[in-house]
Predict the 3D structure of the following.
Amino acid sequence: MRRETQNILLVLLGGALLKISFSGLYLRYVQKGLLPLLIAAGAIMIGLALFAIIRDIRRGKAVDDGHSHSSRSTWLMLLPVLAVFLISPPALGGEVVSSSVDTNQTQRSRNLLGDLPSGEVIPLSMTEFVTRTAWDESGTLDNRRVKLTGFLARAEGDTFVARLAIACCAADARPLKVKLVGDVPALPNEQWVEVTGKVVPKSASEKNSWVPSFTVESTTPVAQPVEPYES
């Protein structure tokens, strides 16, 4: 493959990184905190390609590698570019939610529990809610009205509100879910909702893989959040 083609592919790959960075699509792949690294990587790729292009122009010639076997690996650079520009994959959803929660994550978080905020309805992340129901033996959530945001998932006749948490990127996504009881919403799977209600005390146990039950009082369909994953 000619050097000009390699440089063009490098520009496209860098442009693809910048595209998902500034469009917000990167949140479907990695955590928000990695945005500066994505932007830097895209800018460096484009800068290196432009430097090589300018150098070749000044030399007045294009340098041909002349090795057909090496061109195959270079053309592979085009695959992620095409994936970004032609395909917009959805965030991970119900297919990742298994029959258990990440008990290792809740155990790591057991010493991080603080006081609950005041108010008639407490908005909590799925991570904090699941962690508290598993490890807060004082029952601070009992009889407190809580609002959770997640997507609906169904398994074995039960309905859950679920969310995925990531430590770095979508590849390490782990499921968090809460079993809904009471006024269970009749909405399709993977519909994002805000559910308000109360935890069923002592419902999370080792027997049910620490999945708490949640008595639903009201449900509001919502759009998928800009940041679909928790951290």
Notes: The CA atoms of residues 29 and 171 lie 8 Å apart. The first strand starts at residue 121 and ends at 123. The first helix runs from residue 3 to 23. Strands lie at 121-123, 145-155, 158-165, 174-182, 192-199, 213-221, 229-230.
